[in-house]
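Deliverable D5.2: sample structural annotation.
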Amino acid sequence: MLDGDEMISRYLDGTPSVLKIDVEGAEGYVIEGLEATLRDDECRRVYLELHEGKIFGDETADSICETLSECGFEVSTLHRRRNEMGSEQSDEKFVVAAK
């Protein structure tokens, strides 16, 4: 399986300036696999939907936002929403990270 940095280097010509990430709980894994791209000055903005309470592994919404900050981004929350589907509930946080 390829991580985001490998996919970008194989299939794109250069670093994307904007990323949109909506991966239903795998946010930590995706951000980890994009760290080189995120540290590149050409990557200027990230739109991210965080599914708090559904994030896989040891990551939290706060730790993911901290990683973005460490990569040079200023992170802001655009919107929060409580999502209730049947017996499942999750809080969704929509953030933008900009350099």
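Annotation notes: The CA atoms of residues 16 and 43 lie 6 Å apart. The beta strands are 18-21, 45-52, 74-85, 88-98.
The annotation will be released with the project's public dataset once the embargo ends.
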